[in-house]
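Lab notebook, bench 4. We co-purified these components, and the gel suggests they stay together. Before we commit to crystallization screens, I want a quick structural picture of the whole thing.
Request: model the full complex, all chains together.
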Amino acid sequence: MIAANAAAPFLKFHRRWRRLGWHAVTGFLFGYVVLHSLSMLIFQWLDPRMAEAMPNHRAAGSLLAAAVHSFQPDMLPMGLVFGLVGAAIATFYGYHRLAVSFQRDRLAQELARNEKLRGELAVQNEELAALELANRRTTQFMAHDFKTALNCVGGFAGQLLAKPGLRDDREVAEALTCIRRQAHRMTGAVLDLLQLARMGEKGKPSVQRLSVTEVLHEAVGDFSLPAHAARIGLGDRHRRCPPLCANRDLLRRVLCNLVSNAIKHNGPNTRVCVDAEVSESGREVLFSCRDDGAGIPPEVLPLLFRKFAPAKEFSHGSSGLGLAFCKAAVEAHWGRIWCENLPQGSQFCFTIPLDKEHSHDQCIYDI
Ligand code: ADP
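Here is the predicted assembly.
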């Protein structure tokens, strides 16, 4: 059985080449018998004097005489020429068919291989999807637990800071402020992770009608520490913005991330200004967060919005998650986000379309 299987391709190959030999033989016979006789008939028709030259032409009738004459020994060279021409044409035709059949075999093999690969890929895809889901779930559980613990840490640090005895001790107060700040920062990162995971799972966030001014105030109000609040300003163009359809939590977190980055990654005297306006096209609201810090190295700009992008130019301890979250959240609203360096500092901008069509689609999902 194995030997038969192994010999099958060879036999097939052999059979095909033998068929080419048959093509040559039949082509030769066809040329000799049919084409040669036909040519005699045509010559006779063109020049009736040829018929006179043929022996027995009157007895056998002129047509038959021409055919019979083509088999006379003196016509052998001409017959051979016709035979060879017929053989050449038939061999060429046979060779062409042979090449086509080889091609067809190769394609069939290729198709079979592709089919097999597709099957394997489908299985791997399913495994990957299951793994990704499990991964996302784990991230969500962990992030949720972290969030609760961090809220506790931040809350207790705040409570302790409120106690007059402790607040008056400068060293203790500084340590508690630091604990509260770090807890707040970590909570932000955890929230980003949670929402990134949810967005990956549910696709699009649910939206509601929002006042742009209100959202900006809420985002800026999140920075309740006086040292921060004094450095964050609101522009005045946002007052002319129409209401917007967006997810309030996501929008606020995007703005908070941008403001917190501007504070975190620049010197203590940096000032931040947040604003919004209707874009030139009139079809989207353009949010901006501008700072007068050191700006962003041009080589880092293209990496900024990549998830976990590790760049040595990023600030030490950067998770590289905040801006990736902003990008995902803005794109979930069919918006765009980008960053540009200013003569002094940098400006992060993002758009949220005012388009009703998109907003309607988004209402299907809930985040
Ligand atoms: P993280 O906040 O954890 O550092 P992000 O994705 O938010 O992660 O930011 C990535 C990097 O982009 C930061 O580490 C920082 O180097 C740079 N960056 C972001 N915003 C600013 C800004 N306003 N000014 C200067 N650098 C910034």
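Confidence is low (pLDDT under 50) at residues 358-367. Worth comparing against the SEC data before the next meeting. The radius of gyration is 43 Å.
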